[in-house]
Design brief:
The protein has helices at residues 18-30, 58-69, 114-132, 151-156, 163-178; strands spanning 7-12, 34-38, 49-50, 55-57, 76-81, 85-86, 95-98, 101-105. The protein is α/β, with parallel strands linked by helices and 179 residues long.
């Protein structure tokens, strides 16, 4: 997968220890992406917080990320934070993405076992990157693009794209290079 040469900017939405993010960065690089971290936490205003739900609305945070990072020269921007978020019709989301932009909310991924926590973050960062680059959910249970409705679902899947998603992603990135 090293033919990709796509660049990914990881943006911290809250202070996060590098011990949690570095494995995700390393994994993306092993997949062939050029990854960098924007270490200054993005200010997520409390006006985006839904006090009744005690959660942030994922769509509004994604809009903020789009506004703040629209002019950066990266193929994809993924913002990560210790936040609990929801999307319309869902109790919570681990992440939320659109073309080029994604967010990952790690609060519900937390584990007392640091290696489990790191693995969950790797999976969700990779999953949201897949969405930001144009992939949809996959029905292959171990594929990183498989939908996760619970932390147990996250634990069941792999950190890798299945053969079908990997081929589709390569095709998408080749098309982007031609533009």
């Amino acid at each position: 997968m090293n033919e990709r040469h796509a660049s990914v900017l990881i943006v911290k939405m809250t202070p996060l220890d590098d011990v949690l993010l570095n494995p995700a960065i390393k994994h993306l690089e092993e997949l062939g992406f050029k990854a960098a971290v924007f270490n200054v936490p993005l200010h997520v205003p409390l006006t985006l917080y839904n006090w009744k739900r005690r959660q942030f609305k994922a769509e509004t945070i994604l809009d903020l990320v789009k506004r703040e990072f629209s002019d950066v020269p990266y193929t994809a921007i993924i913002a990560v934070g210790y936040i609990d978020a929801y999307a319309e019709g869902l109790n919570f989301v681990f992440g939320y993405s659109t073309q080029r932009y994604g967010t990952v909310y790690v609060k519900r991924l937390k584990s007392d076992d640091v290696s489990v926590y790191q693995s969950r973050i790797i999976k969700e960062v990779t999953h949201e990157l897949g969405h930001a680059l144009g992939l949809e959910h996959c029905d292959v249970p171990r594929c990183v693009m498989n939908f996760s409705n619970s932390v147990e679902d996250v634990d069941k899947k792999s950190v890798f794209f299945c053969e079908k998603c990997s081929a589709k992603l390569s095709s998408i990135l080749k098309a982007k290079q031609r533009v």
